[in-house]
Amino acid sequence: GSTDNSYKMLLEMYQSTNDKKLFKIVKLRKNCGQNYAIEAGISHASGDFIGFISADLQDPIELFLEMIHFLEQDEDLVIAKREARKDKGISKFLSMFTHYLVNKYVNKNFPQGGYDFCMFTKKVAKEVLKVKERNGQLPILLLSFGFKYKFLNYERKKREAGKSQWTFNKKIKLFIDIFTSNSYLPLRAVSVIGIGSSIASVFYFIFVLFEWLFFKTIGEDVVKGWTTIVLLITFFSGLILLSIGIIGEYIWRILDEVKNRDRYLIDNKIGFEND
Question: What is the pTM assigned to this prediction?
């Protein structure tokens, strides 16, 4: 589903090789996102071991050989864990912050640097294909099955060519998807804020009553205190809108699941003639 020339390049490689069994290409009608593209690949894979890796050349592809070695030694899942990464600035901060929250509130085994480079056995692939969530995240899902896994540490390189399509908006959507699909943390946070606000309101009422009973300061000047009132109204209105927004995110995802539309549509398949 890529919008660049990757399909054309893969097709040229397929046509130029003598051993056609080395290549299988699945072309989607449109770019459906990384998760669905990987799902399409897994559903068409026939090997004993299945792996995926980002196409930005920041990960050492030779690690696949080590992964195969450990899978042959009775591991079910081998994950390339980023020891360090060359990314800088806000992008690195957002990624590290998201992965920290995932590790703390969603899955304690999830590596704090995240991952998008791994290999697993066919039985893991079967479990992946049983899950029909539309907004789930495969890296988190793989660690939730309880299969035996191993981490391989490596240093992620800085991107040398091209520009990442992983925009800020996509990162925000990923952040929301992770927590609405895998955790009740946002709803729990709203509940805690609501309870905290109610308790604060009770204390404020006691303070106002105390002032009125003992100091008679309330009511002497109508204008006095209007700033506090406006701030409180604005603050609690914002909390209400935030709460509605969080609940709306969950409701939208429920609707998205219920519609049960195709996750991806296949345009063409190459190299499956002998299957």
Answer: 0.68
